[in-house]
Write a structure and sequence with these properties.
With 136 residues, the protein is α/β, with parallel strands linked by helices. It is built from four helices and five strands; from the N terminus they run H-E-H-E-H-E-H-E-E. Strands 1-2-3 form a three-stranded parallel beta sheet, covered by helices on one side. Helix 2 (30-42) runs parallel beside helix 3 (79-93). The longest helix has 15 residues, at 79-93. The protein starts with 6 loop residues before the first helix and ends with a strand. The model is unreliable at 115-121 (pLDDT under 50).
């Protein structure tokens, strides 16, 4: 269990990858709890924490006010998980004591161009001509 890890367990690592996922209403808060615990453990060190999130937190507008999870096209079945991951990202953004990267994969990506764009560090998505989304 990642919540049982100690600072000593992670000593000497260059990076820690958190691919945690929870999908039930009672476990959704563990997204933030887990990443905050891991951030506490790497705080003040050179170890970088990578958190695998989802596309729901990506912005769909140029002003960065509307996130993908808040659009009508976003699947209702994934909303609760996306909301938990968006809250997890907000908690990480409030931290200044840990080195972290939140990986938000593209919502839907089929073209080679889109895969290339998704590798860059961005906070927003674009629509493909097919109507899908890709990271921008």
């Amino acid at each position: 269990d990642s919540l049982d890890l100690t600072k000593g367990d992670l000593a000497g690592f260059d990076a820690v990858v958190d691919g945690f996922g929870a999908f039930t209403p009672e476990t959704l808060p563990l997204h933030t709890k887990t990443s905050q615990h891991l951030a506490d453990l790497v705080a003040g060190t050179n170890t970088r924490l990578y958190i695998v999130g989802g596309a729901g937190s990506l912005y769909v507008d140029a002003s960065h006010k509307v996130q993908l999870l808040d659009t009508p096209e976003f699947p209702a079945a994934f909303y609760a998980v996306a909301k938990a991951q968006t809250e997890e990202l907000a908690a990480l953004r409030a931290r200044k004591d840990a080195k972290w990267v939140f990986v938000s994969p593209a919502a839907e990506c089929s073209s080679l161009r889109c895969r290339s764009i998704a590798r860059r560090r961005r906070r927003s998505v674009c629509r493909e001509s097919s109507g899908g989304f890709c990271a921008r």
